[in-house]
Specification:
The protein is α/β, with parallel strands linked by helices and 449 residues long. Helices cover 41% and strands 16% of the residues. It is built from 19 helices and 15 strands. The chain has helices at residues 7-10, 21-41, 46-54, 57-70, 96-105, 125-135, 146-158, 179-185, 201-207, 234-241, 272-278, 303-311, 314-318, 322-337, 340-343, 345-351, 354-367, 403-410, 438-448, and strands at residues 78-79, 139-143, 162-166, 172-173, 177-178, 189-193, 212-218, 248-254, 282-286, 297-301, 373-380, 392-400, 417-418, 420-422, 425-429. The strands form four sheets. Strands 2-10-9-8-7-3-6 form a seven-stranded mixed β-sheet, sandwiched between helices. It has a four-stranded antiparallel β-sheet with strand order 11-12-15-14. A hairpin with a 2-residue loop joins strand 14 (420-422) and strand 15 (425-429). Helix 17 (354-367) crosses helix 19. The longest helix is centred in the first third of the chain and has 21 residues, at 21-41. The protein is globular and about 85 Å long.
Length: 449
């Protein structure tokens, strides 16, 4: 044990001059404690310890651990998986103007004050105004994600009352978010109607009573039922709901496609404008999926219903911070004044024709130099529950080496490259790669392949 250097003497090594002192002390203490534990177990003898000290192995261990700790967990990555809205990689990459707005708002920023009058106002004024303008709705509200939007709506508008929903739409999404559990936590009674595969309008009509507060339609998100299936349309539910005063009709769209023009592969994905135009009292959707903005949940629709949601005490616990609001405002301005298919990375990736992806794959292959690669046709996906049964044609660069190469691309110094394994190959899918990143991706792959 006397051969193990003391912490005070060990950290004086000149190799540690550039390592921040608090980090150095913490890591060095851990390394020396590990050596002591191994010695006590009999895994290291005197000669082994002297070798570790003499050849610099302990110093190198401390430097490697310190370097690893300096890399933030929420670091930038290159998404080459082919899943455009990859939940594990942060879903939608923000538009450039949204990133600029977010950085600017990280300092002191206007949040709950009017610049002209100096009086206090509501923090979501700007984004709510843009949503009302874009969708022609009476009210709009933003909270921290779509699950929060659903929970707030149910608690504010249906507590102690009944919500009728098709049995085939009792969804569970990632993280164990299950609709029956949400209903229970919101304090409302869920009334399931229909069978698993088929629900009829008469099922909804037969379930409506004095305690009915809402008819709820839920987008199935990340699953599909095929064959002998069916459920009433939103238009049918709206017509039924209007027959009885006080019964609201709401639709949880999940991904929330705000763009109205057709996108190949997403033709069947419901659009927010269509749901609003159909007459739903409330439409709920995410900001960080097909809209292409920051993580948030958005409620739009009837002004009175939205106002009741905002007035509920739960709203304060679920509201967004200034960074989210700044990024969302910048993204919504693109939909109002700009060119979303060009400026919103998610829409640009989803709408890119396969010929364009093949050309970019050829450019990437050329940039990889002498590496043995080939351009191959593959299938990619939108991700995050957006039309999961419909793959999108794509193009990838295939490199020899499966899981081992994939792991190297994710690890080590520099920006990680997240690719996918196909048998004994690693595929770098161009569908999810941002076009302007290709040269950086090529350099990262060359360094680690």
């Amino acid at each position: 044990m006397r051969r193990i250097p003391s912490l005070d003497a060990f950290v004086r090594a000149p190799e540690f001059a550039a390592t921040p002192r608090p980090l150095l002390l913490r890591v060095a203490r851990g390394v020396l404690d590990d050596v002591r534990a191994r010695a006590l177990r009999g895994d290291l003898d005197v000669d082994s310890i002297e070798v570790l000290v003499r050849d610099g192995a302990l110093v190198r261990d401390v430097l490697a651990r310190s370097e690893a700790e300096l890399v933030p967990n929420h670091c930038r990555v290159f998404n080459a998986t082919g899943v455009v809205l990859h939940t594990g990689l942060g879903r939608a990459p923000l538009p450039a103007v949204a990133i600029e707005a977010l950085v600017a708002a990280a300092r002191y920023a206007v949040v709950e004050i009017d610049r002209r009058s100096g009086e206090r106002n509501q923090r979501e004024t700007a984004v709510a105004g843009l949503l009302r303008e874009l969708l022609g709705v009476g009210g709009a509200l933003v909270v921290n994600n779509n699950a929060a939007a659903v929970t707030l709506m149910l608690r504010a508008l249906a507590e102690a009352r009944e919500v009728v929903v098709s049995r085939g739409e009792q969804v569970e999404i990632g993280g164990g978010f299950r609709m029956p559990d949400v209903m229970r936590q919101a304090g409302c009674a869920m009334v399931e109607v229909g069978a698993t595969n088929r629900t009829h309008l008469r099922d909804f009509a037969g379930a409506m009573g004095e305690r009915t507060a809402m008819l709820l339609k839920i987008h199935p998100s990340n699953f599909r039922m095929l064959g002998f299936v069916g459920t009433p349309s939103l238009a049918d539910l709206v017509e039924l709901g209007r027959r009885r005063d006080g019964v609201l009709v709401a639709e949880d769209l999940g991904s929330g496609l705000l763009w109205s023009e057709p996108i190949p592969g997403l033709e069947e994905e419901p659009r927010v404008r269509d749901s609003v135009a159909t007459g739903a009292d409330l439409v709920l959707f995410s900001g960080d999926k097909l809209l292409g903005g920051p993580q948030c949940g958005i409620l739009v629709g009837d002004a009175g219903a939205v106002a009741r949601c905002r007035a509920h005490p739960l709203y304060r616990a679920l509201r967004c911070d200034k960074l989210t609001l700044a990024a969302l405002e910048a993204t919504l301005r693109i939909y109002r004044d700009g060119a979303p298919l060009d400026e919103v990375p998610t829409l640009r990736a989803l709408s890119a024709p396969v010929d364009e992806l093949r050309a970019r794959a050829s450019d990437l292959r050329a940039a990889l130099g002498d590496l043995a690669v080939e351009v191959v046709d593959v299938e990619s996906f939108a991700g995050s529950g957006a039309n999961p049964a419909r793959p999108l044609p794509s193009c990838a660069v295939a490199l020899a080496g499966g899981g081992e190469l994939c792991a190297r691309l994710r690890g080590g110094p520099g920006v990680p490259v997240f690719a996918r394994v196909d048998k004994d190959r690693t595929l770098v899918d161009l569908r999810s790669l941002v076009g302007e990143d290709l040269q950086e991706v090529a350099a990262a792959v060359r360094a680690k392949a």
